[in-house]
Design goal:
Layout (H helix, E strand, L loop, with lengths): L3 H37 L9 H14 L5 H7 L29 H5 L31 E2 L10 E2 L14 H13 L4 H12 L5 H28 L3 E12 L7 E10 L5 E6 L4 H8 L4 E4 L4 H7 L4 E4 L2 H13 L6 H15 L5 H25 L9 H11 L1 H4 L13 H17 L5 H20 L3 H11 L5 H5 L3 H11 L1
Length: 497
């Protein structure tokens, strides 16, 4: 027989259990709604207008006490008119130009009766379809006249990209661009070659050509880029999963990873690993000294521990968690999204000088950061343990020291976005080719993605770059080849103009 005190305690426990279960049920329902939006909704975007956030805060104000004046100053915003983007067609100055003279029929028939008094010009953009050509090298054999004992001789065969192979440098460059930049799988290229041009080349043969070019030639440039980045004093780093096929178990795929690191406005490098373990981060950062910016993945903490490395956090990752909470119906996230938006507005107006950037951040960004920290401390235990808001608040608190470190270092950025943007092409490609063919192919693709992304950052047209360097590489020493990075190639082109 239970006493009244035991009954009351039992009732309290049951009420608490019911409350916890209701909270978990609400959390699961929000997760399901988020998953539905991801699977069936519009493409993911993290943009939220100021008006939407202000409406969310207005809803909260109906249910909570009026905010203090200091809070209102932090979350206030300036209403701005959106800039209208105009669609403009622009042709490059150096584009091939063909001028066609159009003469009236009357003038053609009696040119002596007419004189030209002016002209009218109109431009059209046209294209010459791709075509294959057969390049034949004819090497004549010679012998010295009048000398019956002279040995005949022949010109040396031009150095080849693939000794004894069929493709010239231009074709291999085009295959690389089609597959890795334009995301066309090789089986589609095989079909296009056969049906449109009558050229029969198997996808395996194309794969072999790309493999040879990457591993024997482009790998030298890749090592130069990698070593150059490791010798810098500031790196942004991130990782992304990519499926790969297991050669020992036909038809089975496993999860591999690209570890991507680079410097803002500089080069970027891909490193292929079979796992997401800390070995990937340690392999990149073992010889590095300086500042490392990343998300909150624990492998980076382990790799940086005990080394002369300063760690920076990423405000995009922190903001994303509050955005997810907001989209899940937890409107309290607006209290964080608005001040974070102000931090980004400050970043857009900063000068290039590192000392000035740090000074402005301390004057303008630091008070906003202090206010955000105050919100976080007050709401540490407010939300349910499994709620999206609780996850966002605790992530920001756990990363806080790293999230505010950018204020002290003017040469750094507020987030890791540039590295994330470098990852996008390989993720887009994966939607077409689905997986990497083997672990070895992962290393090869890391070399190619590195060069293509460096071209993109330097504003270099990848087809022009690859065609040129693949023609030159067979005639160069290792030292000369390592100097052919997209940045150096671009500078050499500028100097020769």
């Amino acid at each position: 027989m239970l006493t009244s005190e035991q009954k009351d305690r039992r009732i309290e426990d049951l009420e608490k259990s019911v409350s916890d279960l209701q909270g978990e049920l609400a959390y699961v329902r929000k997760q399901m709604e988020a998953l539905k939006r991801k699977l069936f909704g519009s493409p993911a975007s993290e943009k939220v207008s100021d008006e939407q956030l202000q409406l969310a805060l207005a809803e909260l104000e109906k249910e909570t006490l009026e905010q203090t004046e200091s809070e209102k100053e932090v979350i206030g915003y300036c209403r701005r008119k959106p800039k209208l983007k105009e669609a403009i067609s622009k042709l490059p100055e150096d584009i091939e130009t063909i001028v066609e003279e159009v003469v009236p029929e009357e003038v053609k028939q009696s040119p002596d009766y007419y004189e030209r008094i002016g002209e009218d010009k109109s431009e059209k953009l046209d294209v010459i379809p791709m075509r294959f050509i057969r390049r034949v090298y004819v090497r004549g054999k010679y012998k010295l006249k009048g000398d019956i004992d002279a040995k005949p001789f022949i010109a040396k065969h031009p150095d080849q990209l693939i000794p004894g192979g069929l493709p010239a440098a231009g074709l291999v460059a085009q295959l690389i661009v089609w597959k890795y930049a334009d995301h066309l799988p090789l089986y589609r290229l095989e079909k296009i070659f056969r049906e449109r041009f009558g050229v029969v080349v198997s996808r395996q043969r194309m794969c072999d050509w790309i493999e040879y070019a990457a591993e024997n030639w482009l790998s030298m440039i890749y090592r130069s880029i990698r070593n150059g980045l490791i010798s810098e004093d500031y790196l942004q780093i991130d990782e992304t999963p990519i499926r790969y096929l297991d050669a020992d178990r036909k038809g089975k795929s496993h999860q591999g990873y690209y570890w991507v690191f680079g410097r803002p406005q500089g080069d970027v490098c891909f490193d292929w690993r079979l796992s997401r373990g800390k070995a990937g981060a340690e392999a990149i950062l073992s010889q590095f000294e300086g500042i490392v910016q990343s998300d909150g993945y624990a492998a980076y903490d382990s790799a940086c521990q005990g080394k002369p490395i300063i760690q920076l956090g990423c405000w995009t990752h922190a903001r994303r968690k509050f955005y997810d909470a907001y989209k899940n119906g937890e409107l309290e996230a607006a209290r964080y999204l608005l001040p974070i938006k102000e931090l980004y507005q400050i970043e857009r107006d900063l000068p290039e000088d590192a000392n000035q950037r740090s000074k402005i951040r301390k004057e303008r960004s630091l008070p906003i950061l202090d206010a955000i920290k105050e919100f976080l401390d007050c709401e540490r235990e407010v939300y349910l343990a499994k709620s999206a808001m609780s996850s966002a608040v605790h992530y920001a608190l756990n990363q806080w020291k790293k999230l505010i470190a950018y204020v002290e270092h003017g040469e750094t950025r507020i987030d890791n976005n540039l590295t994330e943007q470098s990852i996008r092409p390989c993720k887009l490609g994966a939607k077409n080719w689905l997986f990497v063919g083997s672990p070895k192919a992962g290393k090869r693709s890391a070399i190619i993605y590195t060069l293509l992304e460096c071209c993109r950052r330097q504003g270099v047209e990848p087809m022009a770059y690859l065609s040129d360097v693949l023609r030159k590489l067979p005639n160069l020493t290792n030292f000369e080849a390592e100097a052919l990075t997209p940045e150096n190639w671009k500078q050499n082109r500028v100097n020769t103009l």
